[in-house]
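Backbone-to-sequence.
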């Protein structure tokens, strides 16, 4: 889990706040400050600046649960607790002022500003070329990465998001581009530069695992072109190209597949596989800093054993969507009566709090052993030793498959590699329906984002016009309790002309003097 031994820092505008020397990159407690003039002199300064690019990994409102509120709009889950703000997001009635979603937009721009500062300062520093190139590569990568999420959530054919680079960062006003393709062009340029400068992950020592790497740049190039293809079908060829560049990079990317279907998929999300051949880029976490997502998904109040938050519950629709015999279902979802291990004790699942009768199981590995081993001692901030994947190799295979299908080509090899790991029979002549099924089964409750998939496929309106259902058990304290199927969330009105993007927080609109996304 060690990221490096240098100081991590956070850059806000012209101020620089440094962090203490820590064993892990995710230990980011501020300990002091320094001036711009006293900084940017040594390799440790450059590395510390690069470390600051990852500080958002420990921000609850980013990949802890913040961006999960957008995923929660999908048909795979419902909000597990009464909360007006999150309900407004899920029902597409949000204004952008909601505390659940009003900070991510500006936080991505903070990443961009930090990257811009690095790109301004580091080129002239008298440091070794290998360190300089890696730090600059990280800056280009994280800027492209930040714009990828901003563009996906807030940009469309009517307007992109403001483009701020090291060349114009001193301006006081930034207009929205007339089309999100201008953002995609910027992202692609940044990620190509990152891929040129960054090393393969296989060259990193243990202290640097978790940093951006060449494969991650290629992966986000593929993801960018998937979104770009909504406006230009020619981009599907680019998706295939960049997926192949990940596969052929020399880093040995591969699925975890030992021909044990009942174990292999579940093990992808085990702590010992935080840096496996499958994880291309992930949120680095430890017991004191990082993503709180596993705790957010755990049973509310945790049976009195640990303070789980119980915010997102799988729907019956997701549970029933898996093919018969697909082991990914039990690895992804706990249903009443399922056997699992909690804090060293085998037990059968039940829940007095689940809205649907289910709980996500995918990130439960830290809860298998005594809490002191892998969980934050404070359940009020339930981080763990488990990294949270942002891009897995399975996504590379299925993005390539989609790119091939969209070009009228055969994608059976790629889809069947994913199916084979799950022990499922091979299919022939795979089409988009097959591709959609695999993505749902493979990536449920991951930042791969089913909601975004449904939007770009044009399927969101029909999917959300149906109510979400769950199993309501007669006795919620008994694993073997009988149940009835009931509606747990009403049908929603998704307007594809409006709700394909999210509202930009009004305060950010006011500060930047830009227009809101139409219809919000």
């Amino acid at each position: 889990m060690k990221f490096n031994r240098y100081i991590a820092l956070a850059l806000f505008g012209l101020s620089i706040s440094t962090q203490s020397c820590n064993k892990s990159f995710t230990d980011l407690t501020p300990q002091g400050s320094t001036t711009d003039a006293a900084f940017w002199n040594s390799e440790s300064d450059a590395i510390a600046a690069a470390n600051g690019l990852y500080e958002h990994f420990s921000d609850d409102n980013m990949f802890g649960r913040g961006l999960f509120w957008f995923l929660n709009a999908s048909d795979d889950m419902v909000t597990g607790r009464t909360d007006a703000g999150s309900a407004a997001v899920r029902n597409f009635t949000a204004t952008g002022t909601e505390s659940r979603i009003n900070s991510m937009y500006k936080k991505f721009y903070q990443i961009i500003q930090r990257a811009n500062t690095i790109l301004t300062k580091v080129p002239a520093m008298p440091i070794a070329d290998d360190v300089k190139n890696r730090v600059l590569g990280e800056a280009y990568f994280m800027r492209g990465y930040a714009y990828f999420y901003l563009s996906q959530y807030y940009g469309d054919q009517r307007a992109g998001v403001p483009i701020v680079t090291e060349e114009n960062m001193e301006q006081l006003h930034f207009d929205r581009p007339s089309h999100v393709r201008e953002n995609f062009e910027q992202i692609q340029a940044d990620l190509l530069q990152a891929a040129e400068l960054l090393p393969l992950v296989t060259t990193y020592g243990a202290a640097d695992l978790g940093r951006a790497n060449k494969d991650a740049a290629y992966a986000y190039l593929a993801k960018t072109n998937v979104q770009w293809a909504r406006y230009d079908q020619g981009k599907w060829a680019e998706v295939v190209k960049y997926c192949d560049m990940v596969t052929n990079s020399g880093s040995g990317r591969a699925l975890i597949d030992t021909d044990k279907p009942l174990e292999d998929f579940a093990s992808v999300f085990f702590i010992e596989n935080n840096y496996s051949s499958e994880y291309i880029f992930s949120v680095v976490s430890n017991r004191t800093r990082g993503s709180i997502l596993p705790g957010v998904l755990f049973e509310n109040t945790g049976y009195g054993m640990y303070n789980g938050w119980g915010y997102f519950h799988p729907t019956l629709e997701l549970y029933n969507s898996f093919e018969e015999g697909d082991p990914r279902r039990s690895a992804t979802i706990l249903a009443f009566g399922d056997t699992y291990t909690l804090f060293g004790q085998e037990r059968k699942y039940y829940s007095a709090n689940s809205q649907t009768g289910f709980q996500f199981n995918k990130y439960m590995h830290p809860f298998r052993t005594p809490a002191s081993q892998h969980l934050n001692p404070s359940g009020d901030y339930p981080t763990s030793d488990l990294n949270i994947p942002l891009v897995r190799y399975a996504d590379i295979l299925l993005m390539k498959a989609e790119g091939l299908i969209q070009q009228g080509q055969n994608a059976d090899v790629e889809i069947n590699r994913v199916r084979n790991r799950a022990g499922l029979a091979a299919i022939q002549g795979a089409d988009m329906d097959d591709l959609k099924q695999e993505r749902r089964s493979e990536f449920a409750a991951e930042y791969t984002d089913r909601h975004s998939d449904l939007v770009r496929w044009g399927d969101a309106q029909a999917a959300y016009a149906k109510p979400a259902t769950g199993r309501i058990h007669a006795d919620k304290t008994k694993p073997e309790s009988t149940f009835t199927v009931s509606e747990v969330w009403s049908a929603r009105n998704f307007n594809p002309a409006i709700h394909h993007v999210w509202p930009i927080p009004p305060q950010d609109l006011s500060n930047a003097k830009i227009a809101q996304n139409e219809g919000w």
